[in-house]
Amino acid sequence: MIDRDEFREAMAHLPAAVNILTSDGVAGLAGLTATAVSSVTDEPGTLLVCISRVRRAHGVFLQNGVFCVNTLASNQQAIANVFASEPDMPTRFTHATWRLLATGSPVLEGAAIAFDCAITAVSEVGTHSVLFGQVKAVSLAPVSTGLLYYGRTYHPVALGA
């Protein structure tokens, strides 16, 4: 078995889309930057997101029962940094413009894509909860570049490149 540091170093070499996960509802407003997002199935359209149980937003997401995966465009690195470092949750949301789709979770204006989801199942694995969300609405922006995290830094990626 490998240790935590070796695993984290290996994961730094796995490129991943940069996302802002958001939720709003009875437990309040929450959001965080995440790369642990994946498609599960297309029938019904379902995503999974992984959230550390020590994150302040963890309980909010579970209580609200909804989340939105906002996949960032290459020009949105600054908002990724805000949601990764700003300690005050409401202040995080003052750094961008937001709208709503089906679930009431905030949708980031200009995001490459937004998947608005209702939580259908939760699984506990190690230090994280895996939230499975059935997609209730999608918003696809006409952008030509995305934002990846690789080697512990951000990288733009262009369609057709």
Task: Reconstruct the topology from this structure.
Blueprint (H helix, E strand, L loop, with lengths): L3 H8 L4 E2 L1 E5 L6 E5 L2 E6 L2 E8 L4 H8 L1 E6 L5 H9 L3 H4 L5 E3 L5 E3 L4 E13 L2 E13 L4 E6 L2 E6 L3
Antiparallel strand pairs: 1-11, 2-3, 2-6, 4-5, 5-10, 6-9, 7-8, 9-10, 11-12
Describe this structure in words.
This protein has 161 residues and is an alpha+beta fold. The chain has one domain (4-154): Electron Transport, Fmn-binding Protein, Chain A (Pnp Oxidase, Chain A, Roll). It has helices at residues 4-11, 57-64, 77-85, 89-92, and strands spanning 16-17, 19-23, 30-34, 37-42, 45-52, 66-71, 98-100, 106-108, 113-125, 128-140, 145-150, 153-158. The strands form 3 sheets. The protein has a 7-stranded antiparallel beta sheet with strand order 3-2-6-9-10-5-4, with helices on both faces. It has a 3-stranded antiparallel beta sheet with strand order 1-11-12, with no helix packed on it. Strand 9 and strand 10 form a beta hairpin. The longest helix is centred in the middle third of the chain and has 9 residues, at 77-85. The chain starts with a helix and ends with a strand.
Short description:
The protein has helices at 4-11, 57-64, 77-85, 89-92, and strands at residues 16-17, 19-23, 30-34, 37-42, 45-52, 66-71, 98-100, 106-108, 113-125, 128-140, 145-150, 153-158. By secondary structure, the protein is an alpha+beta fold.
Features:
three-stranded antiparallel beta sheet; alpha+beta; 18% helix; 161 residues; seven-stranded antiparallel beta sheet; Pnp Oxidase, Chain A
